[in-house]
């Protein structure tokens, strides 16, 4: 089962609702994953804080996945969604209006990693992770799919709140077409 642990300054019920909705949309709500939501550490070189996250597989007798999401602290401006910079095929950026949209996007991105690894088995092992010949998947495709999952979740969330989804930034919907 998907477990949400909120260690951030945001309301626990709202955090749980958003994360569990993303898990349900991606079909991973019944898998063993823990999502930890924490406040980001202040970056002294920047006035904005960015939402971030990472996914890790914890093996052993009690194998499970863990996702850690860091959100900007209350009262700090939130940066736009920016995927990792890559040499080839780049995911697109889009604006985040508040911490909820940041949580939606980062949770969808990281839960897509979990779906690929645990549910689909696509990126199992180091060979596929490194994108070596014969692995079946290039690492850039894995990240692009996660960026696309983040964009689609953000768009659904905005449509449900009746907010505009036409971004002043480039529309990433066509990235994997």
Kindly summarize this structure in a few lines.
The protein has 177 residues and is of the alpha/beta class.
Keywords, separated by commas or semicolons:
single chain; 177 residues; alpha/beta; four-stranded mixed β-sheet; 4 helices; disordered C terminus
Could you explain how this protein is built, in words?
The chain is built from four helices and four strands, in the order βαβββααα. The protein is an alpha/beta fold. The chain has one domain. The protein is globular, with a radius of gyration of 16 Å.
Helix content: 25-40%
Mean pLDDT over the full residue set: 77
In order across it, which strands form the biggest sheet?
A: 1-2-4-3
Q: What oligomeric state best describes the polypeptide chains here?
A: single chain
Secondary-structure-derived class: alpha/beta
Radius of gyration: 16 Å
Order of helices and strands: EHEEEHHH
What portion of the residues fall into strands of 2 or more residues?
A: 15-25%
Give the total of domains: 1
Number of strands: 4
Task: Using the alpha-carbon principal axes, give the shape.
Answer: globular
Low-pLDDT runs of 5+ residues are: 123-137, 168-177
> Quick one: biggest sheet?
4 strands, mixed
What distance separates the N and C termini? 32 Å
